Amino acid sequence: MKNRYRVVIIGGGVIGTATAFYLAKSGIRNVAVLEKDYLSSGSTGRCGGGVKQQWAERKKVRLGKGRGDHFKRFERGGGVGIEYFQGGDFLSG
């Protein structure tokens, strides 16, 4: 028997997995993510990312804080650890 999917996503990096997550969250089922190795095994897994909440205009600070909150909710609601880490800096001048 052949598998039938409503959506097939090629690539299990940050864009592919986020797309699958939000499709499922919106109620679309039967979504397949095709990846040649394991999820985030390509360039996504080898790059770092950061969200900064300082040294910017007020609207950018709010945007940065909102993204951090989003990542926390994503990790809790997605059931998969994304290794989100909230750190800090100390600058002496």
UniProtKB/TrEMBL annotation:
One of its GO terms (cellular component) is cytoplasm. Residues 6-88 form the FAD dependent oxidoreductase domain. The keyword Transmembrane applies. InterPro entries: FAD-dep_OxRdtase (IPR006076), FAD/NAD-bd_sf (IPR036188). Keywords: Membrane, Oxidoreductase, Transmembrane, Transmembrane helix. GO terms for molecular function: oxidoreductase activity. The chain crosses the membrane at residues 7-24. Gene3D superfamilies: FAD/NAD(P)-binding domain. Coiled coil: none annotated. The keyword Transmembrane applies. This is FAD dependent oxidoreductase domain-containing protein. It comes from Mesotoga infera.
